[in-house]
Amino acid sequence: MSETVTEEGVAAWLRAFAVAVAQNREYLTELDAAIGDADHGFNMDRGMQAVVGRLDGPSAGGGGVGALLKLVGMTLVSTVGGAAGPLYGTFFLQMGKDAGGEPELGVAQWAAALESGVRGVQMRGKAELEDKTMVDTLAPAAQALSAAAASGLSLVDALQRAAEAAEQGMKATIPLVARKGRASYLGERSVGHQDPGATSSWLLMQAAADALASAASPSDPGA
Ligand code: ADP
Ligand code: MG
Questions:
Q1: What is the pLDDT of residue 223?
Q2: Of 29, 78, 136, 208, which has the fewest Cβ atoms less than 10 A away?
Q3: 3-state secondary structure labels for all residues of the chain
Q4: How many angstroms separate the CA atoms of 155 and 167, rounded?
Q5: How far is the CA of 83 from the centre of ligand 1 (A)?
Q6: How many domains does the chain have?
Q7: Does residue 135 lie in a domain region?
Q8: Which domain holds residue 97?
Q9: Could you tell me if the CB of 181 is within 6 A of ligand 1?
Q10: Residue 142 falls within a domain, yes or no?
Q11: 221 occurs within a structural domain
Q12: Which residue lies with its CA nearest to atom 7 of ligand 1?
């Protein structure tokens, strides 16, 4: 049985991410205190509260997966300060652009949208793999999702693979020297610390595995 990502699923994903960010606000801020300016938890929490506000608002919903993702992207760009706001904003805007007007997406289409989001982040922030940023989490996650889709895994299993790749990518930032963002000002002193943005991106991929999968609708209810 294959499954699809629906607009309701995307909304459930974003709500789950908002809860995870709120629960990990202090943790994200501690990570940013070590190699940045101690505002990542605050930034992300404010942004995701605004996103939940929009999801609850009258204009959200009904326009398809792409429209919802774009609304999220615009909300983050306009409410989150710092580097992460425009980067996460671009991520969701590009995902939304790729998803287009589809009412629901299969696992391969969803993987392609995620890949587009990651490319957007890289175009905007110019970070490569191993620069110790959110890209170290998102890029392997997108790659794992695409690979899982190509080998015919179900959406649930594919999202699980992506979350596992995200976690590995996040942990792999610990020994790296930061080459982008504020942490790069520390040079070698950034070694030994997990990147805050890579950590919030892991929460995002974990939220997808938790919420998107359980909200997924069977594409063929008769099967
Ligand atoms: P700021 O650094 O402006 O205080 P945040 O603390 O909210 O913003 O976000 C910091 C995170 O943003 C970093 O941990 C890193 O993952 C991510 N980041 C910073 N610069 C870049 C970049 N150029 N490309 C990708 N991610 C970046
Ligand atoms: Mg910061």
A1: 40
A2: 78
A3: CCEEEEHHHHHHHHHHHHHHHHHCHHHHHHHHHHHCCCCHHHHHHHHHHHHHHHHHCCCCCCCCHHHHHHHHHHHHHHHCCCCHHHHHHHHHHHHHHHHCCCCEEEHHHHHHHHHHHHHHHHHHHCCCCCCCCCHHHHHHHHHHHHHHHHCCCCHHHHHHHHHHHHHHHHHCCCCCCCCCCHHHHHHHHHCCCCCHHHHHHHHHHHHHHHHHHHHCEECCCCC
A4: 18
A5: 5
A6: 1
A7: yes
A8: 3-216
A9: yes
A10: yes
A11: no
A12: 40
What is d(CA 142, CA 138) in angstroms, rounded to the nearest whole number?
6
How far is the centre of ligand 1, averaged over its atoms, from the C-alpha of 197 (Å)? 6
Q: Which amino acid is at 223?
A: A
In a domain, 222, yes or no: no
Q: Whose CA is nearest to atom 11 of ligand 1?
A: 197
Predicted confidence pLDDT, tens digits, the chain (223 residues) = 348 999 999 999 999 999 999 999 999 999 999 999 999 999 999 999 999 999 998 877 788 999 999 999 999 999 998 899 999 999 999 999 999 998 999 999 999 999 999 999 999 999 999 999 999 999 999 999 999 999 999 999 999 999 999 999 999 999 999 999 999 999 999 999 999 999 999 999 999 999 987 776 555 444 4
Q: What is the CATH number of the domain that holds 121?
A: 1.25.40.340
pTM of the full structure: 0.95
Cβ of 16 below 6 Å from ligand 1 = no
Q: Which ligand minimizes its atom distance to the CA of 123?
A: 1
